[in-house]
Amino acid sequence: MLWYTGRRLLQLIPVFFGATFLIYFMVFALPGDPVAALFGDKTPSPAVIDAIRAEYNLDKPFIVQYLLYIGGLFTGDLGTTFSGRPVADELVRAFPITFRLAMLALVFEAVAGIVVGLVAGLRKGKLFDTSALVVSLLLISVPTFVIGFLLQYVFGIQLGLFRTTVSSQAPWSELVLPAIVLASVSFAYIVRLTRASVAENSSADFVRTASAKGLTRRRVVTVHILRNSLVPVVTYLGVDIGSLMVGAIVTEGIFNIQGVGGTVYRAITLGEGPTVVSFVAVMVIIFMLANLLVDLLYALLDPRIRYAK
Amino acid sequence: MPSNDSSALSADHFVADLEETPIRAVDAIDESEKPRSSWNDAWDSMKRRPTFWIAAGLILVVVVVALFPGLFTSVDPRAAELTKSNQGGESGHLLGFTLQGADVFSRIIWGTRASLTVGLLATIIVTLVGIVIGSLAGFYGGWLDAIVSRIGDIFFAIPTVLGAIVLMSILPTRTPLTVALVLSVFAWPQIARVMRGSVLSARGSDYVTASAALGVSRFRILLRHVVPNAITPVIVVATVSLGTFIVAEATLSFLGIGLPPSTMSWGNDINAARTSLRVSPAPLFWPAAALSVTVLSFLLMGDVVRDALDPKARARR
């Protein structure tokens, strides 16, 4: 296990540098002047441009710029936002809100998704199974922002059960509806994954053996079928953290939540390129770390992977 | 026909003369029909499923609408009457009017092209790049595979829409082509990985060994034998990803960094209608419905194709 962890950590290093380099390269080496973009349609004086270029190290060779940026990342200096506030400060303020929202969404999609998927998989071909499949397909084909608007319209405006926007403190109760919106697509995928996995495992030899031994149905389902079916679901949850962050940008934008996603959303709509980049870079790093964590969890769940290499 | 010669040759060597053991009726091979390929089998299994016909019908409608929008509506989608702003349906304008007073139905019809173009272009680019890179890496292996796979890992580490957000918020020009290119930049490793894995398992097949023994060149083996036999999983992934690209374009347009507002697309119309959601939900609801039905039909098609091409899944059903 230790060997496996070490190897995975080593593999992460080139990916980390590659991905951050890629993002940095896209922003600063491609056509389109980030400094000019700062000013929108106004034309700043050459002296101002030079000062800003020096401040962002744009006057130095590209590779030096990148190394300075990476050095900053490791010392907690994530750059400054459009309005001059340090990105790190913004993150410290906004991250807890997004973290709570994402946790709520993860718990919702995991619990509801696995339960619905398990029942559907055990009753393959029955009415519940068919309707679960139809609903999950619908949820996947409707974009998150449309689901967000619809739920906001129905529950917030028509029924008045929830507030349509979340206050800046973002208490748990106000995050319930946004979390459901954020979780909706992933919920559908988890239902489909669990269902397929449960249906396949139900006819596996070890399940027949367990039933033949005289174990109760309850024990066969929970210990033999469910546990073995969860391996692909756990992997999916890891990959899903990436889509949760994209979803957070959209969902927090719709419900006006002051989290990381909401900050990125406002930066995008206001055209603040540099802010978008520094936040998204942090999101990509979180995504990579989460993937690593899930890989390790995966090895814990499935001994075959642990001992393979 | 060199292949006929070689089979005749082997028959001489390993099979007894016809006079000694005449072909019995049971052994007779019906050669009147063309040999069945796995594609024939897949087609047979697909055409029996109603889901296939529903999905194919919907896709056909969407494609025809995108090609000839003028056939479906005579109303100018850009003609806006502010007095009709957000009004409900009336005769000739069944779905009502947008905030700007333009006909909702007409805008949906004319917006089809942009959404479908982005999805189709991105899918074509990603599939071509993925097939070429994946099959080269999987077939030749070695340092080529190592380098390509590591580069793929780097792009794979950045979620497609997140990467697209960064690129699109910087690019000065936004057309269906640039949106498709930007989405492709981050989406190709998925197809390349699928293709590589599939090529790896096809590479060890007996027919590959046989062709190599017959002296067929490596590149020709890859082109004629490995790629055609390894391509099915890619087709499934590509069909589904067409739907997800359409969603991705709509998401980018919703964020205001997809297609420019002057381009008519479902994503732009949904974004434009959000401000007046409280007053009238219809201008937001209908383009969203059009988009969802289109995506749904590609997802269903992907499901059917996967079931048809995977004999294991077919047997299970």
Notable characteristics:
heterodimer; A: 309 residues; mainly alpha; 13 helices; globular; B: 317 residues; MetI-like fold; 68% helix; disordered N terminus
Please describe the topology of this protein:
The complex is a heterodimer of chains A (309) and B (317).
Chain A: H1 2-28, H2 34-38, H3 46-55, H4 62-74, H5 87-122, H6 127-141, H7 144-158, H8 172-202, H9 205-212, H10 217-254, H11 260-269, H12 273-301, H13 303-308
Helix pairs in contact in A: 1-12, 5-6, 5-8, 5-10, 6-8, 7-8, 7-10, 8-10, 9-10, 10-11, 10-12, 11-12
Chain B: H1 2-14, H2 38-47, H3 50-67, H4 104-140, H5 142-156, H6 160-168, H7 176-203, H8 206-213, H9 218-230, H10 232-255, H11 266-273, H12 282-309, H13 311-316
Helix pairs in contact in B: 2-12, 3-4, 3-12, 4-5, 4-7, 4-10, 4-12, 5-7, 6-7, 7-9, 7-10, 8-9, 10-11, 10-12, 11-12
